[in-house]
């Protein structure tokens, strides 16, 4: 049995608490709405994981880390990169781990596509095309705001990125919103080339990927009723097409899938989800893309650091 607590005064806290209670093998220890309540809860109960709801003070996270409690934190929790790194280091020192939400690793289509790639469905990866589109924004870097999940998923599925080249165009409209479009080319360490298209000029959310290798292709479009299409070369040289799974993934909550995965991980039954280290490596790619777009030349990633 894994004992879990929820902390934070965010309106979503009670909903998160209810979500944990629906997972087999979980006991919800309580909900702390203040730092003092969190201190008391962790002192009185043998809590193994705390999920922080919404924006939180760094002192809350620091206390949980010092208590040796695993942490699940929203990506947009209001902490700076430096605070996240410091908290992650503190977790490592105390034998616990900090995980972040908002990851494509638990989105059904992307998780299933990775399984297919790892199992050899497309053979040796060649050209990878991904797209994410959304409505216009009032601010924010398009590479970090929109591309982080794609960058993390590409690393998780195809390995490290060694070179980044990006272009971006932006225009402010009468409403004050910013229309942005970016195209990023990533050269993976194993030789595959990924093309990531980001758009903050769409009328609605849209995701797409086309993953090609020397033995086949996987295709997903969020506007399509089929989750994933695949094709491969037949014995006679003709293409053989199909779909990886019947039906739709509608109604599946990626965050709940992540919670379930974390429980299995804490029980020693599964790998961990997206950690702060993974998030920081994805952010390095986003920063490299931003630098490339500004400088008009490629940026190399060496040993996890951005290097011209």
Mean pLDDT score: 88
The main sheet comes to: 10 strands, mixed
Give Rg in angstroms.
21 Å
| DSSP strand content | 25-35%
Walk across the major sheet and give the strand order: 13-12-11-10-6-9-8-7-14-15
Q: What is the count of structural domains?
A: 2
Family: Belongs to the Gfo/Idh/MocA family.
Protein name: GFO/IDH/MocA-like oxidoreductase domain-containing protein
Keywords: Oxidoreductase
Pfam families: GFO_IDH_MocA_C3
Summarize the structure.
By secondary structure, this protein is an alpha/beta fold. It has helices spanning 13-21, 35-44, 58-66, 81-93, 108-118, 142-158, 254-266, 276-295, and strands at 2-7, 26-32, 49-52, 70-73, 98-100, 125-133, 161-172, 178-188, 193-200, 206-213, 216-221, 229-233, 239-243, 299-302, 305-307.
List its salient traits.
308 residues; alpha/beta; Rossmann fold; Dihydrodipicolinate Reductase, domain 2; 2 domains; 5-stranded parallel beta sheet
Describe the structure in your own words.
The protein has 308 residues and is of the alpha/beta class. It has 2 domains: 2-101, NAD(P)-binding Rossmann-like Domain (Rossmann fold, 3-Layer(aba) Sandwich); 104-249 and 280-302, 2-Layer Sandwich (Dihydrodipicolinate Reductase, domain 2), CATH 3.30.360. It has 8 helices and 15 strands. It has helices spanning 13-21, 35-44, 58-66, 81-93, 108-118, 142-158, 254-266, 276-295; strands at residues 2-7, 26-32, 49-52, 70-73, 98-100, 125-133, 161-172, 178-188, 193-200, 206-213, 216-221, 229-233, 239-243, 299-302, 305-307. A 10-stranded mixed sheet has the order 13-12-11-10-6-9-8-7-14-15. Helix 1 (13-21) links the parallel strand 1 and strand 2 (26-32). Residues 234-241 and 304-308 have low confidence and may be disordered. Belongs to the Gfo/Idh/MocA family. Pfam families: GFO_IDH_MocA_C3. Keywords: Oxidoreductase.
